Amino acid sequence: MNQDIDNESGSRIEIEFPRGNPPIRLDLYVGHRDDLRLSRTQFQKLIEQGLVTVDGKKARHNLILKGGEKIVIIVPPAPASDILPEEMELRIVYEDEYLLVIDKPAGMVTHPGAGNKKGTLANAVMSHSKNLSSLSGPERPGIVHRLDKNTSGLIMIAKDDETHRQLQTAISERRIEKVYVALVCGHMKEESGEINLPIGRSMKDRKKMTVTRVKGREAVTGYRLLKRYRLYDLLEVQLHTGRTHQIRVHLSHLGHPVFGDPEYGGRQKWHKGIFSDDRRLALKALKIMYHQALHAKSLKFSHPATGKLMELTSELPGDFKELLKLLEEDSI
Length: 332
Fold this sequence. Notes:
- This protein has eight helices and 18 strands.
- The chain has three domains: 2-75, Roll (Structural Genomics Hypothetical 15.5 Kd Protein In mrcA-pckA Intergenic Region, Chain A), CATH 3.10.290.10; 80-173, Pseudouridine synthase (2-Layer Sandwich), CATH 3.30.2350.10; 178-297 and 319-331, Pseudouridine synthase, CATH 3.30.2350.10.
- 22% of the residues lie in helices and 27% in strands.
């Protein structure tokens, strides 16, 4: 194997799939080779860009290798980031030379997007740490996974590419336990269960996601009831996959949107048919929390460098606590 990877100048990798090995998909073979330092997602992007050839022909990600194929991978130089560091207060739950775990407040965007280059978690992290992984691209320095703007709680930041790669692999193999707390509208039929429904981009509104079998990707969400109030249920929710808006989409699809979520029916839409005392309670609750009642409460994973079991938690934010206090008092 000839290999020379340099994030600044780019590189060319030449490898040969050994004869006598069991057949395997090209992207799986490359993605599981630690020595190549390329994640499966990274490699698939290079294929889409036409930067991977097998025996001189442009490769497909689902190509089956049978033995003896010569694979050439061109890794372009990492583009320079135009994100500017911004000094902002960060609630750091854990930090070492490999990674950061931050307690993100609701209202903060995880990383810059179209028309939004300032005030994000990424800007703050760049100010806090000079060393950040480049695997997610210049717009997402160190970002291993994301939280929606109005979801609070724990998020992991990688300080180097190898840590990032190992954390991504652990997420894809479901070895990182991510637990949320959610207040949902109405009452769940079952006190615990698993929602296994594919999620894809909505054809009606491209900014939203929906349950769909047309280009939908596997999405699995587990839940259990923590507390039942007059109008709402408090749930502990566990993500087994990490699709965009997954918890919000799954619960909304069941008719129980996350409380306060305007995009998926948990604010005005669900509360339209409520009257008398129930309506008064709902209006008080909606005034307390301007965003969805969804909080990333805990992370459990093996440290990618030391192997130590990490168990990190975050308290509910103040407005979430105030909301639950109102509901508790109503239950007395």
